[in-house]
Amino acid sequence: MPELPEVEVVRRGLERWVAHRAVAEAEVLHPRAVRRHLAGADDFAHRLKGHRIGVPSRRGKYLWLPLEDTDQSVLAHLGMSGQLLVQPHESPDEKHLRIRVRFADGLGTELRFVDQRTFGGLSLHDNTEDGLPDVIAHIARDPLDPLFDDEAFHQALRRKRTTIKRALLDQSLISGVGNIYADEALWRSRVHYERPTAGFTRPRTAELLGHVRDVMNAALAVGGTSFDSLYVNVNGESGYFDRSLDAYGREGLPCKRCGTPMRRRPWMNRSSYFCPKCQRAPRVSS
Q1: What angle do CA 132, 212, 273 make, to 5 degrees?
Q2: Bridge partners of 283?
Q3: Half-sphere exposure of 48 (CA within 13 A, CB side)
Q4: 133 in catalytic set
């Protein structure tokens, strides 16, 4: 699933190509693509028609398109394979095209939602007073948000009584961090993924947050991380940060810091990649 850098790359593309354009017509080609819009496909298409899309917004991994003249937004769930593409009208339909949005300005491009696995979709929601779709109002700010509160995060981390990777993936504590960037930040911090959060000092929390921000900004600079053709930006281009990963996906390869072979361990239906020398496992109390 795309993490913060990938979603931000898509958001920036949408801001350039879609913001402030009026919807002439929306066409739902597969009902699963709007299953989170409980009123159904026809209602979704009808309620978009004639409205102008505002500046696309993001919190963590969540992306939405506000409608300028309403208190509603189109929330985009990218899932495992969802893509928001800006394509010329004459471009052939993608095999897994699910939703098409045409605009009234005659610029010759349209917005397409393509989703091979149909885990993602678009849905229309009321906004909160803060301008978020109401269904994601509980999501914490992300570490690249200027209003992210480092001290509040540290205090929540200490109270949570969990392990650090679980905390980093808890979207109610800090949003936008997924499996890849958690492993990368923990490797840079020399912290094992099972270290208890209760023992984190302010300097240790600050160091970890710094590495989280650094790795995300580095990924943003090269368009995100792409391990297959399913993650692309709005122009269909893949990101290149996978070529710079220090931990994730490097099982058996030498640690870039000490040369020890990297390890992979099953973790919560995912995998954790780490250096057994640089990231010492916490001692188990007897």
Answers
A1: 115
A2: none
A3: 33
A4: no
